[in-house]
Amino acid sequence: MRAIVYAEKGPSSVMRLVDRPVPSPGPEQVLVRMVRAGVNPTDWKARAGSSSAAGSSFEEVTPGQDGAGFVDAVGSGVTSVSVGDRVWLYLGQHGTPHGTTAEYCVLDWHRAVPLPDEASFDLGACLGVPAITAHRALTSGDASFRLGPGTLAGQVVLVHGGAGAVGNAAIQLAAWSGATVLSTISSDAKAALAVAAGAHHTIKYRTADAAAEIGRLAPDGVDLIVEVSPAVNNELDLAVARNGATIAIYANNGGDTFPLSIRATFARNLRYQFLLLYTLSPSLLAAAAADVTAAVAAGALRVGEEAGLPLHHYPLADLAAAHDAVEGGATGKVLIDIADE
Q: Of 77, 99, 110, 180, which has fewest CB within 10 angstroms of its CB?
């Protein structure tokens, strides 16, 4: 099979296209014939050596956490999917050297989730890291709290960076769950993407008084904040959060630390929720995968310009260029075309 591999950390040029044997699934594993793979910031960061979140070091790595394709074979003990089923994948390369940027990917059965018939492989490859991260940002506590129609009714959700892949998924999932969704954005073009995703209001933080504008839109305060840049936005978050609100932090864009006024924060019963996909418990991952799949089946999770998430396709051999595009801040989602549907 064709696969992209790298044997050392470094720039995108360390990756090369090779031919490798098709792997066989072990007990409780599935072998997936890949159609699409999704590229996330975590992929290039792991390859460059700036993050170890995606897994341990191996002699040779095929990158890629997300993707979609057909089940080609199943190991003993697998009953959740059958040969020929369409599936979307998450955490494909976590804890293993074999990720999704290859013609075949072998992984534990619970990371291969049935893809609803009406969903494209493009959509399936866009789920994984963004949608599961967004799901966790919108939930709290154990896996008993689930997203679905009406579960966030009456709440105001503020999504920072609504034009990004996680922000896009958070907007779509929050809107599907009945919340009023606000999103901060940096330009008119990104505002249009956030609105296409389902945001009810957008705030251009570079030119507007964001706190005043959010206060006008949500006079009783924001119930839940999905935060990508806490070092930059914490003062704003404290200004607009209602008593008892949650600030869910999934990235450190703009800085690794931020000051916190302890008394002013606990006096308002605020809750900070930090989250990282790779260290979530299996029960939380399973709950997220189930809710995300339900949202896909309901037509609530969509991709493409009309859904606020432009798609950028690259062939497998051009994975280096795809990594560079994501590292360079490409707006939307970068996908790898591995096979015809």
A: 77
Based on its alpha-carbon atoms, the radius of gyration of the chain, rounded to whole angstroms, reads 20
Query: pLDDT tens digit string along 33-91?
Result: 999 999 999 999 999 987 655 555 789 999 999 999 999 999 999 999 999 999 999 99
Question: Can you list the domains of the chain with their CATH numbers?
Answer: 2-126+309-337 (3.90.180.10), 131-278 (3.90.180.10)
Among 288, 311, 313, 291, smallest CA distance to 300 is for 291
Distances 173 to 63, 82, 152, 226, 266 between C-alpha atoms, Å: 27, 28, 10, 12, 29
Paired tokens of 64? 């890629």
Rounded CA-CA distance 225/50 in Å is 27
- Tokens 């594993």 label which residue? 29
Report yes or no: 53 and 280 within 8 Å, Cβ to Cβ: no
- pLDDT tens sequence across 264-305: 888 999 999 999 999 999 999 999 999 999 999 999 999 999
Annotate 288-319 with b (16+ C-beta within 10 A) or e (fewer).
bbbbbbbbbeeebbbbbeebbbbbeebebebb
* C-beta separation of 55 from 95 below 8 A: yes
Q: What is the pLDDT of residue 261?
A: 87
- Extended beta strands in the chain, E state: 2-5, 16-19, 29-39, 66-74, 86-89, 104-108, 112-114, 156-160, 180-185, 201-204, 222-227, 241-249, 271-274, 311-315, 333-337
Rounded Cα distance between 64 and 78, Å, is 23
